[in-house]
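Reopening this ticket.

The earlier resolution said the output was attached, but the attachment link was broken on my side. Pasting everything inline this time so it's all in one place.
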Amino acid sequence: MRFIYSEWNEAFVQKLKSMRDLLSIFNYILLLVNGDVDKALKMMERLQQMGQLPPDFDLEQFRKELTDKNVVAMQREKTTLTRKGERGLRRQAFETIFERLKSSGIGNHPLPIGGGSQFEEPLPEKRPYDFGDDLLYLDLKGSLLNTIARTGSLGMEMNQDDLQVYDTARTTSCATVMLIDISHSMILYGEDRITPAKQVALAFTELILTKYPKDSLNIVLFGDNAQEIKISDLPYIGVGPYHTNTKAGLQMARQILLRKKSANKQIFMITDGKPSMIIKPSGRPYKNPIGLDPVIVNRTLDEAIICRKKKISITTFMITDDPYLQEFVRKLTELNRGRAYFASADNLGDYLFYDFMNNRRKAG
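Inline output:
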């Protein structure tokens, strides 16, 4: 079930005004309408009619360019995103968050975006270059000698097989499951939290695919139950009339991570609501949206303890100041020995990226 906004609010308008070009606006609205290209384009037309987009924006030409550049395509009388379009969404989300991080960081914790030296210490040992290795650690002299030994000349005929890099203290891969809350509260009272959550998930996916290709990332949604989705499905997810079955989400994330060979395993959970539902062993749902139900809370906290015993850390990003959620997360974090952040929809990406990059560590 999808929920679409029926009126514009000031926060939405200000968000559009901060964007530089039509493609940025299109991509943002696309996330808002769960990847529906036709609906996004119609929304842009309406925005222009309302005076929220400059009248000189040629939307017909823009639509044509999207097709010509293979960002969108017609399938069964419906315009859909291509794989290239989906990659473009991820890339723009990544660039948007990192641009903000470079300019401001999080409070007094700016990120050294320019290189990985603060996260990886070079070692004397060397090894062949693998795709995705940071060229900051390239052993230029050794690579040149490899080229000379292979070609028998002093000509610059280097290829990838000649390259070697200094090993680092943090080459151990990390397995991450991102849990995204899709309960009804994620759009309740006119506050859109699911769109920023999707944007951050897309950006984080791009980070893993480009910067840390040896890492693994899985996406799990949780509402009345939990469901794993493909990375390519991210633009199309939406909230539903669901309760918050945090236990099911943590349980599925744990099961996924226990199949991974990585020494470092972690769960990133984005949520705005306290747990309000579990599925009992009999298969019957047990729901209570009022307060903190001890039956639901205790069964959910059991998952935090199991994850700790399996050496799976849980980092929770709360995107609301609900006191019930804060009380639950405080206990979950204590039992799991994990981490928790209170973030707004606007700075969620800052906190998530900071935590990931600052806590990548070598397995003991």
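Reporter confirms the inline version is readable. The chain is about 40% helix and 20% strand. The chain has three domains: 10-81, 122-168, 174-358.
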